[in-house]
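Appendix B, record 7
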Amino acid sequence: MTTRTADRSQELAAFLRTRRERLDPHDFGLPSRRRSRRTPGLRREEVAELAGVSIDYVVRLEQARGLRPSAEVVEALSRALRLSPDERAYLFDLAGQRLRNADQPATTAAPQLVGLVAALSPLPALVMNRRYDILTWNDEMARLLLDFDTLPPRRRNAMWLCLSNPQMRDFYVDRERIVREGIAHLRAAWAAHPEDQVLADLIAELTAGDEEFARLWGERDVKVNGRGRKAMRHPDVGLVAVHFETLTPLRDPDQQLVIYRAADEESQSALDRLSAR
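Structure tokens (predicted):
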């Protein structure tokens, strides 16, 4: 026995109708009509006016008559129907359009992630955005890497620190691999967010000011590196090897939670000594 998935055009039509019918015309300041409304919610012509499309277009969408709306039309309908972020993403998926979020990345960590990072102690943890800006961290991560509080906010960037901060210059045992993988990850973020001028400016600054970055950027490697192993030379406790895992919260997809775990008993002993300080 075989089953068929729901036709996307039929589901898009039904979704638009239900979202339209749940809206209260009074919330939109629409003029009252002499004749009573026979159906709940907004009329099709009202949605068309709010979205800047023709009434016929809305009718054809709601009748599943083979239309594939553009990303611009989907965005306009999302605003007109006052969709939530999850509903907006769902509408983009139904329309076969890749959802691009033009919003700039967060410059502060979500409060829930700040609490989670603190609760992960004694595991070193931090949160970054797509630019590698470090948004929050716990004490264990600060003791392992460096005291981020001593840096101006614009320099709390993992890529810039690895390339330009004297304390970090020789911190990683396999430094070129770490930098290479970081640049490959940054290139993927740059391609996915061409509207992010701050990210573009960071890449331009590093390309102009650091020969190593310019060379590796020019190789055009692309890799989203979510887990792996790093070995570090800590000035106080010696060699520390960790496994790292990068997690993306569903509610904050531009923020990445990075967690370190000791890779061996000697490294765990070193991390324990750091935590006890």
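Remarks on this record: The beta strands are 125-128, 134-137, 227-234, 238-247, 256-262. The mean pLDDT is 89.
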